[in-house]
Every structure is written in C-alpha cells, then in structure tokens.
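Lab meeting, action items carried over

1. Structure of the two-component assembly. Owner: GW. Status: complete.
Input record:
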Amino acid sequence: MDEQKIERLTDRQKDCLRLVAQGFTSKEIGRLLDLSPSTVDNHITMAVQLLGAPSRGAAARALAGAEVGQYLPSQSADLADSGDSAMNRSKAEGKAHGIFGQRLLILPPVGGKKNDLDGTSRTLRILQVAVLATASAIALTILISGFFRTLG
Amino acid sequence: MPAFTLPDALVINLYWVLALLCCGFAAVAGGRSGRIGALMIITASVASVVGEQFGPWNQTHIPVMTIDFILLAGFYWLALRSKSYWPIWVTGFHLISVFSHIAVLFADDVRQMLYYGFGAFWSLPILLAMVIGISRDRLQRIEPG
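Predicted assembly:
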C-alpha cells in the first residue's frame, strides 16, 4: 500500500482501522471511541476508499503493516474479516472493559473537537461532568473551610 | 477574622455584566448552539429574578426550581443535538444546581444563603464553559452547530 495514502488517513480513521485489525465490530469500536456505529462505518468506508482496499480487513492490515514498517501478506477474506474466533472475542472483551474503564475517568473536551457522540454517550458524559464537578466542589469547600479554621 | 463580602447589589450587577458579555459572545460566535444557549440563559436569568420574589429560601423554592428544571430540559435537548461539546458541560453543571433543589426537599433545616449560593454558584462555570468551548471550536475551525 502506498505510504502517501496511509498519511492521508485522519486520526479517527486510523483509530477505527486499528480496532478493526484487533477484531472489534463497528458497535464495539463505537463504544470504545464514543462514536455511533454508523459514524464508525463512515470512517471505515472513507478509509477503505482512500486506501483503495478491497475490504475493511485489508485496509486494517495495510495500516498495521505501514505502522510496523513491513508489508503484511494478504489473507483470505473469510479468515481476515471474521474476527469471530473465541480467542479474538475474549481478547476484544478484555480490552473493551479496560479501555471503557479508562474512558470513564477521561472528561470530554470542552471544545476544539466535533461532537459525534451518540445520545447515550452524551448523557453519560453529562452525568460524568456533574459527578466530578460535585466532588471537586465538595473537596474545595472542605479545603477552604479548613484553611479559614486554621487562620481563625 | 471577618470574612470579606461584596455588597449584594454589586455581586448581582457583576453577574449580569458577565452573563451579557458571555451570552453576547456565544450568540455572535457560537453558531446555532451558541444563540440557543445564550437565549436560554438570559431568559432563565430574567425569569429567576421575577420568580425569586415569590417564596422563601428556607425551603424548596418552587418558582426557581421550576425555572431550573425547564432550563435543564432545554440544555439537555441542546446537548443531544449540538455538534459542540460545551453544551454537555453546561448541562452537567446545571444538573448540580437542580440537585440542590431536590436535596432541600429532604432537609429539615435549610440555611438560606447556602441554598441560594450553591444554586447560583454554578452559573459561573456554565458561562465559562460556554465561552471556552466556543473559543476552542473557533480556534480549531470547527463549524459551530
């Protein structure tokens, strides 16, 4: 695959292809990246077209090959695109839980990025902001009252 | 040691200056989301000034609570539809303000200044989140939605 084509991929497209290479479905990728499955499919479709690849699996292999600095031989479509083997599933679920847990601790950006989250993710993010802001306010109140008590 | 306090009228005037500046900026630079957010904040602020005249603050203030619930619904609607992230922050902050009303429902003894202050406090982070979010979107040339 042409390296120039790889460079034309956006960060989001690369994120999606990397997860495709690990056996995740669009729905799982959406959950991990806080995107709707349709948005994930759009990113992957664009990436496949940019790379001129015959399938999402081939596009994912091409990116993986470019990132490790070697060209990976093509595999049969069935083997490459199934991602349904028991080993892949358990690895995928383990990684999904780990990354999901990390995502809960990362606040959404205030701005500077286009919001393409689905409704459920947006609602969860609102609750996340509310919980963390409340905790911060309580901590600040305790600190300030302790400070004034020390002075008084 | 006496605590430093500003006169109430000065605090209220400062809030209005800040609110009008932030909402003005949002309306001009924030696209459709900014205009809607600014309109909701100004409308709710004016309604709250009127609503505060009715009812004491030593128990749940029903008029202000109603206004806050309606505003929360409006912010949530905006957060679900906007192409920007700042409505999510605004809704999250205002949710805390609404919680203070619910908390007072279950309280036997309510300190009026604490109840009023805790609810009003979150209007500042709301205005700041709106302005910072819109500014960052403009810097990254994100099309306001």
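2. GW to write a short summary for the group page. Key points so far: Chain A touches chain B through 24 residues (CB under 8 Å). Chain A has eight helices and no strands.
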